[in-house]
Amino acid sequence: MNSAVAEHAHARAADSTAQRQASLATRLAQTRAATVALLDGLSPEDCQIQSMPDASPMKWHLGHVGWFFETFVLSEHAPGYQSAEPAFRELFNSYYVGVGPRTPRAQRGLMSRPAFDTVFRYQQRVLDQVLVLMHDRTLPDALLDTIELGINHEQQHQELILTDLKHHLSCNMLLPAYRPEPRTPAGVWPQDKVAYPFLRVDAGLRQIGSPDAGFAFDNERPLHRVWLDAYEIGARPVLNGEYLAFIRDGGYRRPEFWLAEGWDVCVRSQWQAPLYWLDTGDAPQLFTLAGVQPLDPFEPVTHLSYFEADAYARWAGASLPTEAQWEVAALALAPWRDGGFVESQRHHPHPLHTLDEKRLGGDVWEWTQSAYLPYPGFETAAGAVGEYNGKFMVNQMVLRGGSCATPRSHIRPAYRNFFPTCTRWQFSGLRLARQV
Amino acid sequence: MNSAVAEHAHARAADSTAQRQASLATRLAQTRAATVALLDGLSPEDCQIQSMPDASPMKWHLGHVGWFFETFVLSEHAPGYQSAEPAFRELFNSYYVGVGPRTPRAQRGLMSRPAFDTVFRYQQRVLDQVLVLMHDRTLPDALLDTIELGINHEQQHQELILTDLKHHLSCNMLLPAYRPEPRTPAGVWPQDKVAYPFLRVDAGLRQIGSPDAGFAFDNERPLHRVWLDAYEIGARPVLNGEYLAFIRDGGYRRPEFWLAEGWDVCVRSQWQAPLYWLDTGDAPQLFTLAGVQPLDPFEPVTHLSYFEADAYARWAGASLPTEAQWEVAALALAPWRDGGFVESQRHHPHPLHTLDEKRLGGDVWEWTQSAYLPYPGFETAAGAVGEYNGKFMVNQMVLRGGSCATPRSHIRPAYRNFFPTCTRWQFSGLRLARQV
Amino acid sequence: MNSAVAEHAHARAADSTAQRQASLATRLAQTRAATVALLDGLSPEDCQIQSMPDASPMKWHLGHVGWFFETFVLSEHAPGYQSAEPAFRELFNSYYVGVGPRTPRAQRGLMSRPAFDTVFRYQQRVLDQVLVLMHDRTLPDALLDTIELGINHEQQHQELILTDLKHHLSCNMLLPAYRPEPRTPAGVWPQDKVAYPFLRVDAGLRQIGSPDAGFAFDNERPLHRVWLDAYEIGARPVLNGEYLAFIRDGGYRRPEFWLAEGWDVCVRSQWQAPLYWLDTGDAPQLFTLAGVQPLDPFEPVTHLSYFEADAYARWAGASLPTEAQWEVAALALAPWRDGGFVESQRHHPHPLHTLDEKRLGGDVWEWTQSAYLPYPGFETAAGAVGEYNGKFMVNQMVLRGGSCATPRSHIRPAYRNFFPTCTRWQFSGLRLARQV
Amino acid sequence: MNSAVAEHAHARAADSTAQRQASLATRLAQTRAATVALLDGLSPEDCQIQSMPDASPMKWHLGHVGWFFETFVLSEHAPGYQSAEPAFRELFNSYYVGVGPRTPRAQRGLMSRPAFDTVFRYQQRVLDQVLVLMHDRTLPDALLDTIELGINHEQQHQELILTDLKHHLSCNMLLPAYRPEPRTPAGVWPQDKVAYPFLRVDAGLRQIGSPDAGFAFDNERPLHRVWLDAYEIGARPVLNGEYLAFIRDGGYRRPEFWLAEGWDVCVRSQWQAPLYWLDTGDAPQLFTLAGVQPLDPFEPVTHLSYFEADAYARWAGASLPTEAQWEVAALALAPWRDGGFVESQRHHPHPLHTLDEKRLGGDVWEWTQSAYLPYPGFETAAGAVGEYNGKFMVNQMVLRGGSCATPRSHIRPAYRNFFPTCTRWQFSGLRLARQV
């Protein structure tokens, strides 16, 4: 390369870095606005409750989002940065052992101090300072990477804010609504069996995962090859009407459909329907973020554990797809729904009634038959941020797709969500698959 | 009786009832004012936290106090009474099976709705309506009895508000103070052994319990005879300095001082000192409602379980008194401290430093060696209010005296407090006794 | 006293000691024979099972009985004694912290080694050596006291052998019998209500407990005075026919009869009848040590927890007696049944069908309303043997009387048995009482 | 095909079936002999103990082996078969819901009846009757398949008999030996680092699993293709000397090496070394089936949970292999050790001291990084026998290889063993792998 060319290339790279930095600053501001918008209609009391160890209070989510930017961006990279709230380094650390002590997970709801306003201002100030840093200087790529990770991290917490809130409201005997909404009458499930539509995918050596360029979480990498035998996969998620037939066929009383561990959990927990179903009789009702509503048989079924999804699939003579089957089929299943309650004008997040044949993403996370394990060649980042995903790669299953509560930019074919097999408080559903 | 006399007697009784009614109305208003005063400096967030199943949020305490008057006074006796908050009948029922369903005990902290202000206004309005009822009509004695019970019930919750608050603040990594206060330097425990002062009580057939006339809880009745052999009882509670000697003599490592069940609990719970002691080294510290403070060796030791109190007594070559021994000695031990943080000008409740020889009440509840069981001839009231005390008479021990957090009028010789043997979050201490 | 008289007195005391020693040697041999007789029909496999932490394997009971004599008699008092099985000092120590480490209680069933025969021979040899010691020398009174304690200790384990065996057989799906026996048809409970017979006892200052002279467990001492108001007490235990009426009146579904903690246990444990009742329908059946048998309505009800006994009493408009009420009434209730399966020719232990009006002891242990606490002036013995009873004096209730599985010499008015409130595997029943 | 050829083919198939039947009968007899040989030196008491819910008593294993042949062979296929022990259908059913009720898993140790001899004779008689059936008639292929499954099933229980026995002996304070053996002095681990030998495997599309022909468990099928990137895999398992270095480098105190869930388990369970290590100081000792022995640094490390194996791998800068990596490498790693304690003349099962560079199978099961999930196209058999493997395919990890306690014929490349991540009582170790 002669020097003129090299100079030109360098300038172009600088341009591109500057553009990226500007674009990230905009996204950071937008993300923050979206987080703040979620708080509409919530009081400090609403924001303090932790209804189970798996869930966290809104106040904690806010503090933790600020903590992430402070710990991994400002403390390490902003010259002379002094935290206004040094105690928050422990209070709002989630699970980063490398950063130090932290509030025990089950005690996140016991913090009446700091007050909500203090935490809110802390989070706002931290994000302001990140914006100032981005305005004042040209930041190295690695730091921009961390900021982009922080934005995506905040978006993950946006979804958790909604699912954790739904759970805590459901524990209240009043069953209060987050955003009340009158509901149009639901459709009626046809007497005749509704065929479940399958698409065929041919055998072949495929590639899955996220490329090195562009943003992705570490667990989506590296891009790698997998061999897939020919299979069929559902064109849409399983719907409430279909799931109700499973229930009425004794699905929750017949061990032959269940994994052994799942059956134990089902009996011990006295499951009789998905979480938030209030009744399975003639007029089934659901608890939603808009309050108690009649069940719509054309909505995708949601709030299933892995065990329920798997039992349904066996009852239906099919199985859950593997994550590779799912990802490879994703292109064929486009166009996607964009979910994105967070960015949309929708009133509250809930899967949508539909008659569409093809449908992917934006309604429910879909359980796959794949355990959450490292891809071949997976590597964690250096330092505490390397604890982000890798240390959870055991005894969990992968979910794909993205739900009605998932930010739009998190809905992509390669995205790997993961939860333990008993989890039901996420918007989790399923799609069938079968070997050809 | 001739009719003039009868008329006179009737008029006098009416006068006396009228006076009683007026007096109760005043006490009701004062009690409410004392409850409200406890909230000074607390936010709605502070009032929502439940740090363990045994404790309740302030908001719940408030709602429950209102619920008690609404359920047992207004709903049954105020003509045409309609609750403004019918759902509260379930939300704020504590344990009265006869009244119907209720929020599960461990989920009292999951109510962000109703908001604190709603609950506060509810409780105020209910008490206002009771006052209106008392102003408008002459109420029958039985109803005045229920109102008097309601006042005493509210006072019990005043104490619980303070101990529950202390526990929840102690779970916060920040160890925040309810009412911060600079503390004068503590005294120094003398090198020489401080003699523990005993008083002698002669043998005899004694009477304990509360008479039928005047207010008392049902569990204090009936008045009945007990035979007591001669005994000695401490003139004051055991002090921190004395308890520290027990700790330093290996008290928490030597099973020979402990009941078998107590030793199991001690090992399993890794107890090394009373609850809220942060350190037992050269400069021991306590968590108090005024924040972290140096330990004062002349204060009565507090936040002990029954097992610790009993182990200390055995180490000291003595025992805990029975409740009859305690009650009979109470007159000899007068004058009492009046405790009464709730009514006093003190800044926060904590046992007081003292050099007095004789001292009873107003510092700590004192564990006795008596199980909480019905007195001979004990009877419960008809209806749901009969569940007040009787159904808890098993597997608990009686405490006597009254603590720094106890309302003044609850400090009386016959008062029976009771808790399970592992309980430590109350202001519980001990006094020694021994057989002659 | 002149010297002749003194000599005479001394000789008489010596005579009496010699007689006592001879008599104890005989009792020791008899007790051992009775223990061995219990093993008839049991295999080493039968003797190894521990069906719950509260129960122990027969093999362990045998080893522990030997251990007690070895530890407290031979090791301390037999000159030059060397244990043939030094490891047994740890293996068969029950709960004596002062003696050293021990097999954890819940792991007593995990000892396949030593083999049953080894343990049996050990126990026999130890008792032989105690007999040799008693033959060879005149032993001091204190040592004879310990031997007498050892005999009574062995008898307590005879009862536990039977109740632990019953429990373990009941866990076997085959419901095998210890000693099968054809059973005569049970009586039929009369249509008309059977009156429950009460005896009246006048008020007065009474004396209860065991005198210093003669054998008694430490927890029965000292003899002391108690004041009792006038009361009535049942002339016989409550019978199956009566208890069945409680069940059929919804006794296990109506919380108003239960202590709060008892109701929680009842719901959580899904109790619907006493332990070992297989059915409460038209033809109720029991599991007994003679196998499954039809329920006889005239037998005393047994295998009740304290909570069930207390709930029954409340349903019947009465209460449980206190232990003082029970003990004072015991003389009036004589003659006693002698229970004593162990010494008798009966085929297997079970409460007896009866139509007698007056009946005490030998059928079931009777729950009292008294917590198990030290008597005034109670003192423990020095050394590890002092751990015998005292350290369990908390959170248990006293039972009085003695059951069909109780050795005859354990049936006396002052005897205090004790168990936690949930206990059901003992032969435990009840007798009613009421205040006059 | 003309008819002569067809006839010939048919005759050849018949020959081959007859040969197969004869060969299976021989194997059945050999397998039974091997099972009986395991009982040498064990008493009925030894055979009854269940030391934890995961383990089973020897007596139960025997009964269950008989039960399997009775239920799936005799009851369904032997004309007029009547069980001599009909109750055993419930007693010895392990987990086959389709067969009916069964002894709860945690209560398998509570069966003193039937006696060991009864169960032993039952198992012998059932196997005799299967042999008679095989002698008397020509059985259809499907039934021979079931008999072959039964033989393999019995072999699996042979291994469990050994590991369950080891666990129960380890719970005995005496630490008794199954087969005592004097032990030659262990080698000394060299001061210099011992290089861990890796073999390289090239990338490619490979085939794993078991073919349809010949015996294999259903979970090994179908044969299917997988893509593998190039990798390296250890030529031998990790040795005690290497693992000791991990311990001494703080392996059990440094969370950075552990999966999050593993670290929680490690802390909560107070793990400080593999199971059965009695000491990690200067002279480490192990509990083995030959009693307590000095640790040999050249033996493969064993009794590791998945979490410990994974943490070691991370500490060593490597990872665990996937099951596909392991299986593909297996040919390169041949010749294998044949393990096979059961068939061998070895005195007791324990991994062997070795200096060999290449070593596979016969020492320890090796944890892989693969979750136990169905292969693509996996299908279960019809009927209850279909519950054999499939219903456990969740929340477990695959182990490969075969241990010192594994029957010889179970050591094959495609064999998939599986256990939950906390499991330590199997002979489980590890081999390292790394991406190229």
Written overview of the protein:
The structure is a homotetramer of 436-residue chains. Chain A has 436 residues and is α+β, with helices and mostly antiparallel strands. Helices cover 35% and strands 10% of the residues of chain A. Chain A is built from nine helices and eleven strands. Chain A has helices at 3-38, 58-77, 88-91, 116-136, 141-170, 240-248, 260-269, 306-315, 323-333, and strands spanning 198-201, 204-208, 224-228, 231-234, 285-288, 291-294, 365-371, 397-400, 417-419, 428-429, 433-435. In chain A, the strands form four sheets. Chain A has a four-stranded mixed sheet with strand order 9-8-7-10. In chain A, a hairpin with a 2-residue loop joins strand 5 and strand 6 (291-294). The N and C termini of chain A lie far apart (53 Å). The model of chain A has no long low-confidence stretch (mean pLDDT 92). The B-C interface holds B 95, 97-98, 205, 224-229, 231, 255-256, 258-262, 306-307, 310, 319, 322, 369-371, 373-374, 376-377, 391-395, 397, 421, 435 and C 95, 97-98, 205, 224-229, 231, 255-256, 258-262, 306-307, 310, 319, 322, 369-371, 373-374, 376-377, 391-395, 397, 421, 435.
